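Methods — Computational structure assignment.
A single polypeptide chain was analysed. Its primary sequence is given first, followed by the predicted tertiary structure written as structure tokens.
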Amino acid sequence: MLAEYNLGDALWTLLAIFFMVIYFMILFSVLADLFRDHELSGVAKAVWIIALLFFPLVSLLIYLIVRGGGMAQRSMKAQQAMQQQTDQYVQQTASATDPSEQIAKAKKLMDDGTITQQEFDAIKQKALA
């Protein structure tokens, strides 16, 4: 059995697996884009999903042709929203420390010679603001 499996068969198997992986990557990108799009109605999303289930290759190509241009914009919008949420979280976490703790840390740094008196004063003023 193994003797009948030659290099040509291995290459065809590799090629088939490659295209299958590519297909699933595109399919998941389309599904993510469908659920990311808030302008598309629920009925339209259901129709696209049904089309993707019953006519997978054709509907995938049609989706990429018809709505492919907006996929990048919606993805960029989602990434910007996530970045903004992360920035807000970091800012809230950083500002949640007690001003007296910030001043104490700055005083320790000044005593160690890591920062100057002017830098200490700036940190102190910022913590108290």
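Note: The chain has a mean pLDDT of 88.
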